[in-house]
Structures are given as structure tokens and as C-alpha cells.
Amino acid sequence: MHIPDGFLNVKVWVPAWIVSAGGIVYSLKQAARIARDRIIPLMGVMAAFIFAGQMLNFPVMGGTSGHLLGGVLAAVLLGPYAGAVVISVVLLVQCLVFQDGGLTALGANILNMVLIGTIVSYFLFRLLRAIFGPKGFLAAVAVAAWLSVMLASAACAIELALSGTSPLVVTLPAMAGVHALIGFGEAVITTLVVSFVWKTRPDLIHALHPKPEQAVHG
Fold first, then answer.
1. Domains detected in the chain
2. Angstrom distance (rounded) from CA 21 to CA 25
3. For residue range 147-180, what is the model confidence (pLDDT) as tens digits?
């Protein structure tokens, strides 16, 4: 899902950078406002885990690739904004150190995998949790994880199409088809990790103990 340099035109990657920069600044402020002392080392551990997972890339088409996202996992355990900071740091390191994704396209990659794949998908998780009820916590995690990959890949396809890199009728089915399978793996891994933490240290799961202003009824 990392988009390399040269795949997006200026009319796409510049607005993506502006939106992503605003989203990162907002996430940093929100994370700093609600962060607890114990969340800092958890963010480091989560960043390392997701970094390792994202380094396993699967070729998709035309130089683009797919991989595990980790956005819902980070958001459920740390909160949407701390999770967004973690995924942003992972993407930045991958781009600057490992040349995984282009620098001009980094804004679009952050838009897809952080703003959509982490923050938006977390609130989809909350909606699903309300629909599924108290016993549907893990089901909501699994579905949200799968949707996060699908939504991020769809956004990537749209950006490539708007840039004239590949027609949407070609890019969207190709991205959606491959990422439907990757999303299944994402759902399994996310659910297994959250389930393990839930059984051993449920106090560490943000989604079970949100701040009052973020509480989910039901």
C-alpha cells in the first residue's frame, strides 16, 4: 500500500500532505492531552511490532504493494490519536530509512493508513461495537480491522486514478481483490493480539477504558 514517488501528480500529493500534516498535528495534541504515563512505553512496543509487520510487503500492481496495516490494533490498544502517532512514526521511518514509499507520496500514505486506516477505522469499530453489543467486542475488532485495510486500499486506488497513473476501473478491483485477503490476515492478527491482551492485561486496552468524553455506551 506504500505509494512510491512519481505515482501521484502534484494536484494529488500536495493536498494529501496538507490534510495529513493537519491530522498529525491534531493527533499529537489529542494524544498528549489524554496520554497516561504507562502509554509511552506501550507506544514504543506497538511501533516496533507494527513496524516489523509492515516490512512484509506483498506486490500488488505497477510498483505498489500491500502489507499488514496495524491501525485498528494500535487504536484499540492505545486510543485513536496515540495509535495514529505510532503508525505515522512507522511510516516515516520506513520512508526515510528503508525507502518504502516515496517522500512526496508520504502525505498520501499517511492519509490512507493513518487518518483512514487508524482514526476513521477506530470510530467504525466503536459503531460496530455498539451494534454488536457488549459480547461483540472481538467481532467488532475483527470487522473494523478488515474494513481498515479495504478503506485504505480504496483511497490509494482513487489517488492513483486521480493522478492518471492507472484507471480506477483497473486499480480499484486489483487493490480491493488483493487487500480483501490481506485484510483477512489483518483481522486475524489484530483479534488474536487484542484477545491475548484482553485475557492477560485488560487494563491496557484503551477501548475498554476510554476517557469519559470518549466513552461508548452499550
1. 10-214 (1.10.1760.20)
2. 6
3. 999 999 999 999 999 999 999 999 999 888 888 8
